[in-house]
Design a protein that fits this description.
about 70% helix, 2 domains, about 240 residues, mainly alpha, single chain, Arc Repressor Mutant, subunit A
Length: about 240
């Protein structure tokens, strides 16, 4: 009999299993993916933690099948690792991987920013501007969760305003991992303050549709956060 208190054990062939068909099963799978993804990217489930089947099924009110399908989806997104004979583990934050991720998404957003300044509608720019002001309010209120959500909305809005569906598809694929890493970086007050100033410069470039300026701001915006995380790593390790 399976011990439900043990970490979830998923075989290697789970990577090749198809997505569930539409319907109630598909709905449960989607809800489970959303719930688990949010817990991981927000830090509620910590890096390196095992995903325990019994607890998650009870908390999410679902059976084992949609939970396992959800975990496979998150594994393809890079948020979960499937270890043979061990189960599913929340992927640890590796700073070298974060650097590669930031470089990639920075290049994507730089290209999208230049296109957005050429192709964005006035309505799209207005929506990004509103989100920017709302993010500033969240910053003043020190509401990190709201800040991160609005921040993500702004970045996606710029990519969407490029009207290049390939850039947007790639960005959406990387977004959960990016959000998780950026949430960790913004836990450091100095980085949060600097990130807001960078966003103010980005917003100013967008308003005057200066594509070269906006594009040039994108990759450093990510890598500056990585530098803060690297600098804090020895201090964090000593505290632990």
């Amino acid at each position: 009999m399976m011990d439900l208190d043990q970490p979830l054990d998923l075989p290697d062939e789970s990577f090749t299993r198809p997505e569930p068909l539409p319907g109630r099963k598909g709905s449960l799978h989607g809800e489970a993916v959303t719930a688990l993804r949010e817990r991981i990217v927000s830090g509620e489930i910590l890096p390196g933690a095992f995903l325990r089947e019994k607890e998650l099924c009870e908390e999410l009110g679902i059976s084992r099948t949609p939970l396992r399908e959800a975990i496979r989806t998150l594994a393809r997104e890079g948020l979960v690792r499937l270890a043979p004979n061990r189960g599913a583990v929340v992927t640890p934050l590796d700073l070298d991987e974060v650097e590669a991720l930031y470089q990639s998404v920075g290049h994507i957003e730089a290209a999208a920013a230049r296109l957005a300044c050429l192709k964005a509608t006035d309505e799209e720019v207005a929506a990004i501007t509103i989100a920017h002001h709302q993010m500033m309010i969240a910053y003043v209120q020190r509401d990190l969760a709201a800040y991160i959500a609005l921040n993500q909305s702004i970045h996606r809005g710029i990519v969407a305003a490029s009207h290049n569906h390939v850039l947007l598809e790639i960005w959406d694929l990387l977004a959960p991992r990016v959000r998780r890493a950026r949430a960790a970086a913004n836990l450091y007050p100095s980085r949060w303050d600097a990130a807001l100033r960078e966003h103010e410069a980005m917003q100013a470039a967008l308003l005057v549709r200066d594509g070269d300026r906006l594009g040039a701001l994108m990759e450093p915006h990510y890598l500056n956060g990585l530098a803060v995380m690297r600098a804090a790593m020895p201090e964090t390790a000593a505290a632990e």
